[in-house]
Amino acid sequence: MDTVKVDVYVCVHKGLRGLIDRFSFDAGATDWTNPTAVARLHTQWQIVKRLLHSHHDREERFIHPLLARISPGGHRPYDADHRTQEILLADLEAHFEGLVAGNTGEEMKATMGLEFYRGLNLFFAEYLRHMHREETEAERVLHATCPQGELVAVMGRLLASIPEDEMMLWIDCMFPAMNLSECEKLLAGMKACTPPEAYEAMAERAREARSQSNASRLEAMLVR
What we know:
The protein is an all-alpha fold. It contains 9 helices and no strands.
């Protein structure tokens, strides 16, 4: 019997923790009176938003039905968390867009930028709590009640549903945040559900993402 557990949450959450943490750092270091710096941060913000929205959507499409089947309403606490987080993201988005589009003076831009940074970190605090609940509650329930073969199939469908351009963004944020064993397992999952040409592009992106973190060891894994 296969005793290797399928990762449902941990690896993607490692990537998201790193992504939001780096964006928070950059937001704190941004000179909000400098249009070039603000535009650069705004570009990063588009990636953060896209991956967070995508993550919520795929959890609800692929993982939450399993939780609902296990327990009536078992998915609802996580759905409720997502609704709260989407509201917070919308508020942050409106604030950031207002700052970018506004014709306020430098002092007001600096004040609004600081408020965005504070609001971002309140969101991050809430999101850290949410991810911890999913990893320590939902993942344990899934492994206790769902056959591993079913989880493998569901995660395969989830990976296959991600467009290639978005998958590259996930590789950028996840592979530096994971250990090498986790990288190897994720690449194996990608290879199983991805056409060969697309997989080779993803593997190359993974090499680049690990360039500062034992890329040679990852290379050895890729050629097995």
